């Protein structure tokens, strides 16, 4: 199976480095993405918006679908990247066999991917999660790993997280989803969905919920366990 891997904010294709070998050892072909402006801290991202990131995922879906001889693609995404990937599914609902959302959810039409983080010169730097009271996000990093994680984080183009998500094709709700739950539980997520807080996710007709545990970045802190969860979804 062709598997497209979409990073979350402040990350690029390298976030999947420890996951890809596990997927390929199982016989799949993995396509980890670096979205526009996210190649490095020095990359020019001054003109990059949400549509550019969605378009890059759509392009990758088209290429993976063709490479697989017309077999539907497994589309894996992390954190706010889940909103980007879901918008790409909206654009290509016939080419995605299943979505896997890791620590994130689809965004609702008309809403931004993320709000409330300060921007400087058109970019949003990764915040200190502990200072924000989000200790659960980074609870399974060692001190050394966390220092390196912050050092490697790439600022996100402000427009990517501030521009509204646009969804058009209700066939996106027919694409089944696997919700992998790291710093929150499957029971938590079901409660949020049932409580009407995640309308787009609630509209997806077939959903599986998988507890993983740990912090928000399992591709870095527990890649083998995450890879197994992705392989289970691929089956």
UniProtKB/TrEMBL annotation:
InterPro entries named in the record: AB_hydrolase_1 (IPR000073), AB_hydrolase_fold (IPR029058), Sec-Metab_Biosynth_Hydrolase (IPR052897)
Keyword Hydrolase part of the UniProt annotation: yes
Ranges of residues in domain AB hydrolase-1: 3-229
UniProt cross-references to Gene3D superfamilies, sorted A to Z: alpha/beta hydrolase
One GO molecular-function entry: hydrolase activity
Pfam family, any one: Abhydrolase_6
Keywords from the named record: Hydrolase
Superkingdom as given in the UniProt entry: Bacteria
Protein name (record): Alpha/beta fold hydrolase
Taxonomic lineage from the root: Bacteria, Bacillati, Actinomycetota, Actinomycetes, Propionibacteriales
């Amino acid at each position: 199976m062709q598997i497209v891997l979409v990073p979350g904010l402040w990350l690029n294709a390298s976030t999947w480095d420890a996951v890809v070998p596990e997927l390929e050892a199982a016989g799949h072909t993995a396509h980890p993405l670096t979205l526009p402006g996210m190649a490095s801290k020095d990359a020019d991202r001054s003109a990059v918006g949400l549509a550019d990131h969605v378009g890059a995922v759509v392009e990758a879906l088209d290429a993976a679908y063709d490479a697989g001889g017309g077999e539907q693609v497994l589309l894996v995404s992390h954190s706010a990247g889940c909103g980007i990937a879901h918008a790409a599914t909206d654009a290509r609902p016939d080419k995605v066999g299943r979505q896997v959302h890791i620590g994130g959810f689809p965004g609702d039409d008309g809403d931004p991917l993320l709000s409330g983080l300060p921007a400087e010169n058109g970019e949003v730097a990764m915040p200190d999660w502990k200072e924000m009271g989000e200790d659960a996000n980074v609870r399974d990093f060692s001190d050394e790993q966390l220092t390196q994680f912050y050092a490697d984080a790439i600022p996100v183009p402000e427009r990517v997280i501030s521009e509204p998500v646009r969804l058009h094709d209700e066939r996106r709700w027919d694409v089944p989803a696997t919700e992998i739950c790291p710093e929150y539980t499957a029971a938590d997520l079901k409660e949020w969905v049932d409580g009407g807080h995640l309308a787009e996710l609630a509209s997806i007709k077939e959903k599986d919920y998988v507890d993983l545990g740990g912090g928000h970045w399992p591709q870095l802190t527990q890649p083998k366990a995450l890879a197994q969860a992705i392989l289970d979804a691929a089956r």
